[in-house]
Predict the structure of NADH-cytochrome b5 reductase 2.
Amino acid sequence: MSTQVAITVAVAGIGAYAWYLRSSSTSGDKPVFSSFGFHSLRLESTELINHNTKKLRFELPDKSKPSGLSLTSALLTISFPKGRWFPVLRPYTPVNDLSEPGYIELMVKLYPGGKQSTHLHSLEPGDTLTFAPIKELAWTPNKHPHVALIAGGAGITPMYQLARGILNNPADQTRVTLVWGVNMDEDIFLRDEFAALERSHPGQFKAVYVVAAPAAESPHQKGFVTKQVLEGAGLSAKQSKDLDVKVLICGPPAMEKALKGKKGTGVLAELGYRPDQVYSF
Ligand SMILES: Cc1cc2nc3c(=O)[nH]c(=O)nc-3n(C[C@H](O)[C@H](O)[C@H](O)COP(=O)(O)OP(=O)(O)OC[C@H]3O[C@@H](n4cnc5c(N)ncnc54)[C@H](O)[C@@H]3O)c2cc1C
């Protein structure tokens, strides 16, 4: 919900301002995204990481500074497709360590006919793209004993940003459980990164994958993100008496609807989670 509000606010004033900034670059003493503003970044490299997802690495104007984005944040991207009157705006989530200086990395899934994902997949090194920061859930270490990350498809990127942010901070003891639903085994990316986090943080981090149409040799359970799957992953407020768990969701509208339902009727309510425990990216 917060993302939609942020986008609406940004769209309201964007026309002339974004046009003016299309070819601008920035410099200054502060990290580029430490406050709201539009900035044009140069694409440094691209890498195809599975059958439909590309990693895009953009240079920051000052190579010695990090982006200035806080945990958790997204970036609103703005493009000006040929033949269209209006700019296209969509949020994407940086997946690099936010403290690393000099660059940001996005992982972008290509949707057939998708306006922005098609544009982003067409970019070549040297091209530029305009960004503005969006603050998402402001994460406070150890505020909750346990966080449940429930993702569908490309909704994994905010979850990865948060999981690595928590687990890379030795002072943050929050337990993290990730449940990620995808269509096919080939849709899973960041597998090695999540496996490394499980190895380095046994007992603190667990990742569970659910595949709608798994291959015969798939190691993952078949299906969708259901009540049974979440219970199997240890995500049930009723069973665990884990009253202060925070539940974060990012995925297609159908998944979100099934989980949140209307007026406390969804899967999460059945598992004993209150609406105030749940946040949607
Ligand atoms: C906070 C936030 C962070 C995000 N971070 C990322 C990220 O890091 N990487 C990433 O790849 N995407 C991310 N997204 C999704 C992204 O913003 C776009 O919605 C997505 O790239 C599709 O935009 P498009 O212009 O290509 O498609 P559109 O032109 O908007 O839509 C074309 C068609 O694609 C399909 N489609 C579009 N979006 C979805 C969807 N989410 N699920 C299923 N089908 C869809 C629909 O059938 C639609 O009709 C994020 C979204 C949010 C809200």
Q: What stands out?
A: The chain is about 25% helix and 25% strand. Residues 156-167 form the longest helix (12 residues). Residues 181 and 210 are 5 Å apart (CA to CA).
